[in-house]
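Protein in question filed below.

…
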Amino acid sequence: MTGSEVPTPGHTTAGHTRSGTPVIEVRDVSVRFPGVLALHRVSLAIQPGTVHAIVGENGAGKSTLMKLLAGVQTQYTGKLELRGTPCRFYSTRDAEEAGISIIHQELNLVEQLSIAANLFLGRELHWPAGWLRDREMLERTRHWLRQVGCELDPERMVGGLRVGDQQLVEIARALSRESDVLILDEPTSALTEAEADRLMALIGTLKARGVTMLYISHKMDEVFRIADTITVLRDGQLIDTRPTSQATPREIAHLMVGRDIVPSETVAPRTPGPVLLEVEGLSLARVDQPAQSRLRNISFQVRQGEVVGLAGLLGAGRTELLECLFGASPLPFRGNVRLAGQPLDFRHPSEALAAGVVLITEDRKRLGIFEELSVGANITLASLWQNTMGGLVVGAREREQVGTTIERLRIKTAGPGGRITQLSGGNQQKCLLGRALLMQPRLLLLDDPTRGVDVGAKAELYQLIDSLVREGLSVIVTSSELPELLTMSDRIVVLCEGRVTAELSRAEATEQRIMEAATMR
């Protein structure tokens, strides 16, 4: 790489851009992966000091385009200009030095390091003698955490944080670089509504300072709340770019999927059967402080053919409760849990799977997919016994099972033999759902199941889950989006600081009532 290929670093506001010149211009860019044309002759201009939303279905090419701008995707045809100067990035460091930072949908933190060490990784502060300026880095980390409304201890290990907290750390790390172009790829996917509101306010502040932001989101309310301009991608091609003031959410959704989306609200009421799961007085100690409770005296029921939603702010205990039911809790719980009348006390997830209880984790990258395996292997990994004969896997059976799952869930992939990491986040999530359904569960635990899933795929998943529930499947679902819980759930159990503060029927539940219960002390 020659120095002329990367624009001069050190830009801290978009005001450095010449008047009338786009801060970023993409011309006829194409990206091809094995069997997939991810981008096809995309041309786009991003104006300085604006919030430009990039929307589209999973696999439309949004993340690929953003990775290209951030120096992650280096193989492409076409031209890229930054502040009127031709450029080509060969690494993320090139992009960062040119003033571009990205917040990935899939978190890129080093779990074995502290929050402060992650924020300053590769750009540590040193004294002239070579010693690290630890105290200064800790103070600066506290400052940037406060900027995103987070009060975490900078010395905490990132690996011990929940995914929502890790997302906030990722955002703080990007902001700490003081870049004048900020790419946000689904930044609120793991945040509660209150945390997302703080981020929206922060984006407004950054925009007022002249920072240019490219914002990827499947949440139309966010897009129309903060974006000045919206660009729609579909199947790797640019479909339309228009000012937000000249668009409606329905129009944009139609452009994204090329068809009208059936409203989720049309789902008819369900008639649940007998009680399948009974939880009485479930309590769980804190891992870091065993004398204190993480979950306190939780009681509720789940009936056959029913969806029970778990609502609550980040840290309310939703994920911990699902882990207890799935045998994945690091500590044993106290209390009584019965599944179909039989005592439930799983000590390992394998015991839960054998009993027909399946969990789809919120942390897809770390706890869900197997990055080194193919799409097909990820789908059938937990149900290989269905395709074996004499202790050997029958390839034809497995291929048929994978093909049926891909078709049923409309997974966009070049084929079952491709690496799962080549799929978009939403299509990876569909693979996890397909894996779960192949295990023929009685009780399905969904921890934020549509994180990173586009509006069209969400509607398809809602309809699929509804059809499965009507066939007798029972579901417990958490979500950071209250409208999603209201759409999917027959009843909603609200948690606050590890205890149940409300249980609402579909008729009783509203966003206001849920938030009131979720903030009850």
In short: Confidence is low (pLDDT under 50) at residues 1-19. The chain is about 30% helix and 25% strand. The chain has three domains: 14-259, 273-356+442-521, 367-440.
